[in-house]
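Final report, Chapter 2: Outcomes

The project's central promise was a pipeline that accepts a single protein chain and returns its three-dimensional structure in a standardized token representation, suitable for archiving and comparison. That pipeline is now operational. To close this chapter, we reproduce one record exactly as it appears in the project archive, with the input sequence first and the structure output second.
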Amino acid sequence: MLAANLENMESVLAQAFVTGEFSDLTLRLRGKEWKVHRLVLCAESTWFQDQMIRGNLDGVEPLDMSEGDELCDVLLMDVLLNYLYMPNLRLRVLYHPDWPVHKSGGYHIRLFAKLYRLAYDLGICGL
């Protein structure tokens, strides 16, 4: 019964991310916006926890993630947010269909390095 409830919760979280249902915060990055949930972000990220404690996640205004970080781009943030919301799919969401493919046929190692750096900067463990 517990496993069924956990699967249902993961499904609910994934659906909430995709639809933005019950969101209480908007993240903005270079023109793209995501409707997210402070509970999910703060549970997974020490950076978001710190922002919440400082009162920067009031949900009234979108949180602009663009300032001061050239490593952070829309595709990387999209992959990272999918990672946070879909724990059962974590290994499968560490790519994005819009990522450029290296001439060897795989994704360029620099994309993964940027992704890991972004996760590190946001205090997201386990990636």
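Archive annotation: The first strand starts at residue 25 and ends at 29.
This record, like all others produced under the grant, will remain available to the consortium after the project formally closes.
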